[in-house]
Amino acid sequence: MYAVPEARIGGYLAPRLEASVGLEVILLAAIERPAWNDAQPVVAGPPNQPGDGVGTFGRQTLAGAFLMTAAPSVGLRYAF
What we know:
By secondary structure, the protein is mainly β. It has two domains: about 1-30 and about 65-80, no CATH class; about 35-60, no CATH class. About 0% of the residues lie in helices and about 50% in strands. Strands 1, 2, 3 and 6 form a four-stranded antiparallel sheet that branches. Strands 4-5 form a two-stranded antiparallel ribbon. A hairpin with a 2-residue loop joins strand 2 (about 5-15) and strand 3 (about 15-30).
């Protein structure tokens, strides 16, 4: 599930020129959290080199249950 609320404020710099600034907040909620599976081994070393063999990570989640980020923006509009 996700929600993306946005707030924006602006004003006219000239009769046909408008400037604005805004902030968009992206909210993500996981219905089911993705997790690493030990059935998929990982080569622990550079390609085509012996490295340290094969590794596994155990059962670990790849992301949190809730993620949030913000995206600021600026805008400039001219009416022809």
